[in-house]
Design a protein that fits this description.
Radius of gyration: 17 Å
Distance between the termini: 20 Å
Structural class: mainly alpha
Mean pLDDT: 81
Helix content: over 70%
Oligomer: single chain
Low-confidence stretches: 22-30
Strand content: under 5%
Number of helices: 8
Length: 193
């Protein structure tokens, strides 16, 4: 019943991997200013990536048990709230870091912040929907979870273009050098499996 939800959630880990710059190669020609920007963002992302990974793990654990609908509802609602808070916090971190010192840095930063806030709002909406599910009727509950899983699937496969755009080129190289981005991406990719 809840397996589709768990599968859809692993897509959220893909989004986190994009955010943490783990796919970027190294590079040594970045400015100190860009490295400082990347460090500020990566240091702020790390605890949020862990929060998202933990929320994914909680939902996947709940789906692997044959849990009562009320327990699934409680776990899912808390996980979606945690994810919403984490994406909003990452957006705030990217916003407070300012624009990276690259071409179109300001636009890239603003687009990424807007996207992160939209993702946070989407998770808040999913939390509200989970809260409203009827846990006394197993069939209705299962149908409701399927709808949520479908939305979650869409959320995980769309909406990270601005993040990719922000992290291309020198920004990605600077982020890839940061220890906190490396550990954030490893906790995110651990939940993708």
């Amino acid at each position: 019943m809840n397996k589709k939800l768990a599968a859809a959630l692993s897509g959220g880990a893909v989004l986190m991997a994009a955010l943490t710059g783990c796919s970027s190669g190294g590079g040594s020609d970045n400015s100190d200013k860009l490295d400082a920007w990347a460090k500020q963002v990566c240091d702020a992302v790390q605890p949020q990536a862990k929060k998202i990974a933990d929320a994914n793990a909680a939902i996947q654990k709940q789906t692997s048990d044959n849990s009562a609908p009320a327990d699934v509802q409680k776990t899912d609602a808390k996980a979606f709230q945690d994810m919403s808070d984490a994406y909003k916090a990452i957006g705030a971190a990217v916003n407070s870091a300012g624009a990276p010192d690259v071409d179109n840095g300001k636009k890239k930063q603003q687009d990424a912040v807007r996207e992160l806030n939209q993702i946070g709002a989407s998770y808040a909406s999913l939390k509200k929907q989970v809260d409203e599910l009827d846990t006394k009727d197993q069939a209705k509950f299962a149908d409701g979870l399927k709808d949520i899983a479908t939305q979650l699937d869409k959320l995980s496969t769309t909406g990270n273009d601005a993040l990719k755009n922000l992290e291309e080129g020198d920004v990605g190289k600077a982020m890839a050098k940061q220890e906190s981005c490396k550990s954030a991406s490893s906790s995110a990719s651990a939940t993708a499996g």
